[in-house]
């Protein structure tokens, strides 16, 4: 039994060894057959990049294709992920250079359930410090979002694409900062700040409190500030609309300014003369102040009497300018004309004598009546009864009388009669 078992075990070991030897050959034959079949039957095969990766994003049954153009795609490769809010929603199917410009065009396959506005943005991000590159799709601000939906065949232009900083760029900037930058001056800055703030902690604390109060006030007045900025914006827009008129006004103003510049000496001389005139006028007013006040005080009674006359003065002037045919007389005359004959003695000596004989003074002179309100003036006025009036030479007749009806020269009115001569009696000899 023991010999039989040894022979059987030996045969089994020889069979396993032979099988191990034949396995690589079988695998190699199968791999070659697979490559031959793929090369002959699949004309669109583009290599390993064309094979789908396990564990990729679920693009659904009817995904749509979106293209985006970038200035630089770094090391983005096909089958890279496409994400929205860090959630895989698709993959990159192709990266190529456009024919019309030196821009990279990335073709993406996106799940049909992804809802993005038509003006969506694209950015190349990196999953970690040394992680893979992927394309991040995100929405624009709500105020700029399009109402239309991103769909198949849409193109995201270069203006709405970008990329994040590379690790090499960050390390290069850090190297410049540490080696040739201002990192060595940080200690100096800290020391100077310590010197500036040493012993002034109270003032700095008070300054910070005031700044906090100022910021709070500005925050509370942000509506007014916004309104003021809006008003300034409206004003600037209005000025922009009136730009042509403003240009015209400035262009028309130039000749006037040139004339003023040419007449500068004359203007300066005029202002200097005006200054001298103002000085002289001030001296005159100061020197005649008492006389002017005295004249105004003397004029006050005259103005008071004029005010007391009321409407009598305009009525008398109305009669004076329409004598002898007043408004009432014209209404009583039939026809469109009337006859008037008048003899006027305009001899200056006779007029002067008539003015002296009239019982109606031309002016309310001081000391002439008890009701006079004028101040006493040292005028050489003579009192007493006036002499008999002198009748004017010649004769006059109206429409109802003749030359024989006028009084004879040197005659006086009948006893008991009161004739003041009418409105022009003081000129034509009326008493």
Radius of gyration from the alpha-carbon trace, in angstroms: 61 Å
Mean pLDDT: 75
Distance between the termini: 194 Å
Oligomer: single chain
Number of contiguous helices: 11
Strand order of the largest sheet: 7-1-4-3-2-6-5-8
Taken from the alpha-carbon principal axes, the silhouette is elongated
The level of helicity is 40-55%
Low-confidence stretches: 1-8, 377-387, 389-431
- What amount of the residues lies in strands? 5-15%
E-strand count: 8
Q: H/E order of the elements?
A: HEEEEEEEEHHHHHHHHHH
Instruction: Characterize the biggest β-sheet.
Output: 8 strands, mixed
Keywords: Coiled coil, Membrane, Transmembrane, Transmembrane helix
Biased composition (Low complexity): 374-385
Transmembrane segments: 23-45
Region (Disordered): 361-431
Describe the overall structure:
This protein is of the alpha/beta class and 431 residues long. Among the domains are: 1-35; 49-164, no CATH class; 339-411 and 419-431, no CATH class. Helix content is 45%, strand content 11%. It contains 11 helices and 8 strands. It has helices spanning 2-41, 167-179, 186-197, 201-220, 222-241, 243-262, 264-287, 289-309, 312-321, 327-332, 348-357; strands at residues 64-70, 81-84, 87-97, 104-110, 121-126, 133-138, 155-156, 161-163. An 8-stranded mixed β-sheet has the order 7-1-4-3-2-6-5-8, with no helix packed on it. The longest helix is centred in the first third of the chain and has 40 residues, at 2-41. The chain starts with a helix and ends in a 74-residue tail after the last helix. This is Phospholipid/cholesterol/gamma-HCH transport system substrate-binding protein. It comes from Actinopolyspora saharensis. Keywords: Coiled coil, Membrane, Transmembrane, Transmembrane helix. InterPro entries: Mce, Mce/MlaD, Mce_C, MlaD_Phospholipid_Transporter. Residues 422-431 have a biased composition (Gly residues).
